[in-house]
Amino acid sequence: MHRLHTQPKVVGVKQTLRAIQKEMVDVVYIAEDAQSHVTQKVIESAKERQIPMVMVDTMKKLGEFCQVEVQTATAAIVKKEKEV
Questions:
Q1: Between 20 and 30 A from 52 (CA), which of 31, 46, 62, 67?
Q2: For 44-79, how does the pLDDT look when each residue is reduced to its tens digit (9 = 90+)?
Q3: CATH architecture of 3-78
């Protein structure tokens, strides 16, 4: 969870899905209390691409870990760009 404080991330379902589709994600965080129809596509996409998933108790906690003032259903750590 410490990585959510220190590394580049995206927050929210739309941004998480976009980052997964662009193959930019190292790990996905999912709030357990989020409605399944909201998180289902993120979970399926992460499984398809074999991206590790971390379950977080609540949307409130996930939002706090991401240092945003709103609850969030999903978040992801994005890969650092390769240095040239």
A1: 67
A2: 999 999 999 999 999 999 999 999 999 999 999 998
A3: 2-Layer Sandwich (3.30)
